[in-house]
## 1
Amino acid sequence: MRILVVEDEIGLAEAIGAVLRKEKYEVDISNDGQSGLENALTDVYDCIILDIMLPKMNGLDVLTYLRVKNIETPILLLTAKSEVDDRIKGLDCGADDYLTKPFSMGELLARIRAMLRRKGIFTDINPKFLDITLDMKRGELICNENSVLLGRKEFQMMELLISNAGKIVTKEMFVKKIWGYDDDSEYNNVEVYISFLRKKLALIHSTVQIKTRRSIGYCLDGAK
Ligand code: CA
């Protein structure tokens, strides 16, 4: 799960980033509207946290532009108490929710989860597929009484595979969601991490297999 934070108060942006990373989200931070827009246009994010008052381009303009460009990423607006009109304008322009500053990090996380849930984006606390469970808090892959710790990339790849169970996850999708940019040299990494994950599935004696689908990508399946 990859989140973009567009916030010009550096301290706040970093604090939000730290909390989100602790919750196992990948986070990119932009400190002005223009770079926020450029990042958001790549369409790799599952959610965007967007401040309204921003240098270079204001949050409402960023939001409007994204919706015109058919970028439908869920957007949570951050507003100051005095910006009531902007808040209403924001919802009219296609924001999904707003949060008034100051807010608690707990509330921010709850709003993000609610927003993703409404959008039908996978937010199961501990995603499961057949005999495996991904423990989000401990970062472990579990099968019956066996468990193994996953590295950060392995964890994100397994999360993506489980949330797309039954469908092919392309190499491009892994690279975009996890590495965050499109670069041929990254495709080899996907193969390396898939081989690590296969070893770990075997280690915990799971019947789940990661099948290669031609050269397109990978798909979770039970052993036949
Ligand atoms: Ca601001």
## 2
Amino acid sequence: MKQPALPAIEKVLFTEEQIRARIAEVAAEISERFPSGNLKLIGVLKGSVFFLTALARALTVPVKTDFLAISSFSNHSGAPGVVRIAKDLDDTIEGEDVLLVEDIVDTGFTARYLLQTLAGRGPNSIGLCTLLDRRARRIVPLRIDYRCFEIPDRFVIGFGLDYKQLYRNLDFIAVLKP
Ligand code: IMP
Ligand code: MG
């Protein structure tokens, strides 16, 4: 494991081993729930790519993947709320069992907007799967179907999560120094 010699890191919240183990548990749940081969994981660029690929590889059922990108004025310090799709999915999701895969659900604005938008495209089912849940900052009530970890109200980096586009490639999750 790459250990954090990085000056930006205050403390490690979850090690690579802990993350892999938890993803394996969640993947087992998802594999059991969707044996039909009708499953599609939808990732939100860029943060959820790292989690989505780890999750997909841990699944034991056939799975499709697609990605979208958003632009959002929702961030940890600023006022949240305005979300729009900057790059849409490549394919239709009609009749498919869709899981929206997020790196973190914070205020919930992003996930709610995406779930509502995708629900309007005729999927067979739609659910939400997130690596991290910072429930203390939730503004929009949301049902999270699969959650790996709940985290305290601190800004985190690693496993896809960035600070100014850096640190996504860390294979652990850490609290950024204030
Ligand atoms: P929400 O709409 O407030 O739920 O926004 C969630 C989005 O904000 C995530 O997909 C991340 O891109 C970003 N975000 C929120 N908290 C953090 C954090 O602690 N580190 C890195 N990105 C974050
Ligand atoms: Mg994100």
## 3
Amino acid sequence: MFVVMAVTATEAEINAVKSHILSEGMTPFDHQGAERVVIAVVGEVGPRKQHLMSKLSALAGVEAVTPISRPFKLTSREFHPEDTVVRVLGATIGDGSLTVMAGPCSVESREQLFETADFVAAHGATVLRGGAFKPRTSPYTFQGLGVEALRYLAEARERTGLPVITEVMEPNQVDIVQEYADILQVGTRNMQNYSLLTAVGRVARPVMLKRGYGATVEEWLMAAEYIVSSGNPNVILCERGIRTFETYTRNTMDLAAVPLLHHLTHLPVVVDPSHATGKRWLVKPMALAGVAAGADGVMVEVHPRPDEALSDGEQSLTLAEFESMMSAVGPIHGHVRDLHGDPVLAAQALEVGVGEKH
Ligand code: PEP
Ligand code: MN
């Protein structure tokens, strides 16, 4: 449930509501909406729900107490109707601009990273990606350069001015990764690693949460809820494909998840057509499709010589292919940017408009 405070509610009234919630063994999360403060009540309320709702309704300064129908609370649009905009260095994610996260699957050397970084920065990327700690299916393949790669990423940020994103695989890596990176990535294999979600929820860095390859949208949002309820509101969701019976593609990119998420949650949504398809020549069309479906951005793997890549070469764009994708994606984004937002509310607004004309 959440408590909607009156527009005129005082600081003292807001604090009294929060203390009451705490005294009932629940946790208050307040959010300053466009006009008023709303306070989510999270925790295991059980059979006391009606009792708690009527007690809270009676407190001074409270306008209404509304149940949240979804199991995810802080991440739901019901509680937080405005889009979350993640700001990091000069980049804004989720404000209607197009975010492009690009770079190599793995940081392989300083030269390889800088060559890629310089190129993608010059051709419109807004965030630089690069894996340092790599979750590889085989223990015999390249596992990443680790801290050495983090240092190169930080140098690449100085060179290009772009914020950098890299994956953190374990709770005990969070400290070192957040020291160097601007955005922490939680990979598909770790989407339900709850101790990692809680750990990244405690740091002052935005987190990009990739969808588990076998996770439903609801499980994914519940994972995001772990991060937000641990204190970190800056979460970006990334659809990177789910496993289906299809084998021509590495995964199946769930395009409908994009507008669905815009309806269910206020968090920004990015698509990763590289991991979703596994094939370089499918990346551009699926990046375009993701943006057309309303994604706030794309994440793509780029390598100056994909044939020599130490990981994911088959799905990495060449520099020229990245440039070609960028020139196509901009106009698509220009066409659809007004369609951003909640597709259900937008459709309802349209119906109202139509009705008024008759
Ligand atoms: C990655 O982005 O480098 C990665 C490993 O992605 P995923 O977790 O989606 O497989
Ligand atoms: Mn990869």
## 4
Amino acid sequence: MKQKKYSVVICGGGSTYTPDMMELLCMLQKSFPLKKVVLYDVDEDRQKIVGDYGHIMFQEYYEGLEYYYTTDKESAFKDMDFAFVQIRAGGMDQRNNDEKIPYRYNTIGQETCGPGGLAYGIRSVIQMVELIKDIRAYAKDAWIINYSNPAAIVAEATKRVFPNDKKIINICDMPTSVLDAYLPLIGLKRSDIQPVYFGLNHLGWFTRLINRKSGYDHMPDLLKYIQDHYEELHQQFQDKITGENDHWGITFLNHLEMMRDFPYSLPNTYNLYYLYPNKSFSHYSLERTRYDEVIEGRETTVFNYCKKVTELGKMKGTEYDLSYRINPNNHATTDDIESKTVYADNDVHAAYLVELVLSIINNAQDFGLVMVKNNGICTNLDNEMMLEVSCLIGTNEIMPLQVGEVPTFEKGLLENQYACEKLLVDAVFEHDDLKLLQAFTENRIVRDVEVAKQLIAEFKKVNKDYWPQFK
Ligand code: NAD
Ligand code: G6P
Ligand code: MN
């Protein structure tokens, strides 16, 4: 039987993660055969940098593929099978505001957690809803796999606007990165296990690591290993930190320290912002936040790389040759794509999304961590919550794994954060100023009504048309 060839649009074509994603598509051309790849963005100039690079890479490494980049919706979405979405509503300039404004009020300025994440959430809800409607106008059956942040807030909004659309999946790569960081300590890799995880996006915990073959739960062994080797691991994590700008190195060291305080589960790194606000706050300042590091680091590296290849006009036979990684005849599996990709500092990003796709097209029932409506997964949490949990991924169904009762500490944190996110989405759809104030106040990182009011006033000034008019 002839294998089906798929069409993919990458929304947010100018994203710093797109080159990695395109490289992975080349690597997997046997397992995930493609007819067409299109990049779509609202920023023509930004997308051109990545788009021109894509022309060279696909021409040299993907025979017969149709490829172009565009800002036109119809040519981007028509008849697509998959839309991979990684847009940043408002771009990096607004991320700078999201992170810097909170520092003026002595609160954490972070991309997705705290007041900056709420400001970003308002922009994202509006742009994601519009984007999904546009995609659906031209590709009613496409799988829409979304990375755009703040994913918890986006998921709460898409659940409400598209309640019957089973092909919108919101995902995050962080829990997967945590697994990849810790499983090797006990000689395991991700494909060996089926984890149990629960939370809202960027606030969650792994509680079990079930062996796919034997059913054995490896979590107690991992937790014991971490506590027994704590000093040694701490030193190893510290030694790996490459300098004061090594955001992820420092994050994982803090994460390890969090596991000493709460030794009974494997948490998400983002829990740090809620549980250790002082330490998180002191890492950055009004002058310098993670935004500056990303601009100087990932964005500069990725864009310079793309520009150099475009100047050269070729990759094969140059220092940028990817022949050692891309073998068009290799039938790659998920184990192959767990290995590192070349440029991004977050290696699992593209791999994790494509793993989900492979499980969908092959009806493989592999696990994926995705956001789904609670509906009894966590028996003592609101059934409307969009929980991030472990699911079996197939062609026709996404089947969440049952979690059961959530302990009091985690329940309290989640209910508080859900109230905040729910109020924010209410505020956007109802244009309700009071709910906006309640959302900011409910957030653990803000807390104080007067601070919330000042933050909202400042964010309103810089978000102008990105935000609705609140009444
Ligand atoms: P980026 O700013 O480098 O790229 C985003 C691109 O989206 C830009 O080229 C921008 O012009 C474009 N864009 C903005 N609004 C758009 C719209 N309405 N339609 C189409 N394109 C639009 O950002 P990045 O660092 O590459 O991250 C991209 C997104 O993915 C962000 O939302 C980020 O938070 C998210 N992300 C999520 C995860 C996760 O785990 N869920 C991981 C990494 C990145
Ligand atoms: C992790 C998170 C994402 C976040 C990303 C990039 O992968 O899961 O949600 O957007 O990190 O963060 P950075 O600060 O490097 O742009
Ligand atoms: Mn994330």
